[in-house]
Amino acid sequence: MTDVQDALRARLSHLWGARVTTGPPQRLTGGASRETLRITVHTRDHTRDLVLRRDLLPGATPDGLAREAAALRAAAAAGVPVPTVVDDGPTLAGHPYLLMGHVHGEALPQRLLRDDTYTAVRTTLAETLGALAARIHTIDPDRIPGLTHPDPLDLLRDLADADDTPRPAVELALTWLTHHRPEPRPATVVHGDLRNGNVLIGPEGLRAVLDWELVHRGDPTEDLGWLCVKAWRFGAAPPVGGFGPRDHLLSGYHRIAGWAPTTTQLHWWEVYGTLRWALLCRVQALGYLHRTRDTLEHAVIGRRVCEAEYDLLLALGHTTPHPADDVLRAPAPRTDTTPPHDAPDAGHLLTALGDALTAGEFGDTYTTRVAANALKIARREILLGPTLAERHRQRLTHLGLPDDAALAAAARAGDTSPALTTAIADTLRDKLLVANPRYLGQPAD
After folding, report:
1. Which tens digit of pLDDT belongs to each residue from 126-180?
2. What are phi and psi of 307, to 5 degrees?
3. 3-state SS class at 45
4. Looking at residue 63, which CATH number applies to its domain?
5. Which of 51, 88, 71 minimizes the C-alpha distance to 215?
6. Which distant-in-sequence residues (6+ apart) come within 8 Å of 276 by Cβ?
7. Domain boundary among 255, 279, 303
8. Which residues pair with 42 in a beta bridge?
9. CB neighbour list of residue 129: distance below 8 Å, 6 or more residues apart
10. Are residues 120 and 266 in the same domain?
């Protein structure tokens, strides 16, 4: 990180006309697409915390971060609480960058949903987020050069077709979305990733909205549906980010915008957002599998695709929550080791390592928790893999289908018979028994 510090000191010294020193960069968790660092800078007169975002992908152009910087400036002009843009440009230590002021607050969903510090503010956040979305939709789009205006279903179909694995649940959802599409609202600026985890909260309420890299033009209801996607509830029951009911969200939106979408329109965009999340998880997993994004996080997120696909079937009424036991909670069986190896065997070693990582014995960091999750998924697959594979083979045989590609083709062709949707739901339940069995018992609403 020395090159980053040297480049930042030189740039800020030129920008501010004063000698600047910096502390060591601190990597911030969250966000799988760009590097985000917190850096304390000092001049003779003041000390200030800044946040540096850099796009490290090979061949990255400055356009994305330049658009994000323009969106932040336009949002501030519209009265949306955002970090202050300090600087942006095509290269800092060899990469496009965006430098912002640091806003103190909590963004970690698990703390926002469970910490006593936020007990009072939690009850108002669903309405607050509705009002926030309405203010975002007042931003002047002409102040953000390069905004795209994609057709939402074309975007999802392109993502689905880029996958190399048949996904029956995706085909079911795409068919439903195509047949139930509402009339679009007049296009506005859409944040594109407005959710629990991308807002900074203090005990008194909202402080800033972050991560504008997906900003675009579109139907404003898209942001409201994304707020209600089940993945952003993090195990809590209330549908708006785990904070409150949908009618609070719509009430907050109406208070600022003077109108609000119907519950039917909101539901369509919630299903849309759920499918979008499933496909984005798959895109990140493919980045790992094709070795364009070689990180543990991108590897593990591939096993979260079935969570979003299961949520699709919940939203479409094809299944219901059903708690399931985690095979890892059973006592570890005593096994004979294979010579020349000594006990404990590989399964016991995986168990011990996973427990140690979960307990924070190697440091309570985000990457450590991801590593622990990866180990648990691997061991569940070892324990359950043969049984689940045989169960899936019998499932396809019962339908008279040879493989998952045929199952996906039937869904694409419009087959929504109970036999087919039950088979897809049962398949996703089996996937979740390995990837995340606790997810099966989480409430749908």
Report:
1. 999 999 999 999 999 999 999 999 999 999 999 999 998 999 999 999 999 999 9
2. -60, -50
3. coil
4. 3.30.200.20
5. 71
6. 155, 156, 159, 226
7. 279
8. 21, 47
9. 194, 199, 206, 227, 240, 241, 243, 249, 252
10. yes
The Cα–Cα gap between 22 and 45 comes to 14
Cα(313)–Cα(322) distance, integer angstroms: 13
Q: Is 42 left (phi over 0), alpha (psi -120 to 50) or beta?
A: beta
Omega prior to 340 cis, within 30 of 0: yes
Q: Kindly give, in sequence order, each residue whose CB lies less than 8 Å from that of residue 186, ignoring residues fewer than 6 positions away.
A: none
DSSP 75: H
Rounded Cα distance, 23 and 354, in Å: 34
Residues in the chain: 445
DSSP assignment letter at 183: P
Question: What is the rounded distance in angstroms from the CA atom of residue 330 to the CA atom of residue 429?
Answer: 19
> Residue 87: what are its φ and ψ, rounded to 5°?
-170, 155
Q: Which of 72, 101, 130 is the last residue of a domain?
A: 101
Structural domain boundaries, residue 354: 280-445
The answer for 32, left when phi > 0, alpha when psi is -120 to 50, beta otherwise, is alpha
CB 416 within 8 A of CB 171: no
Average confidence (pLDDT) over 188-211: 97
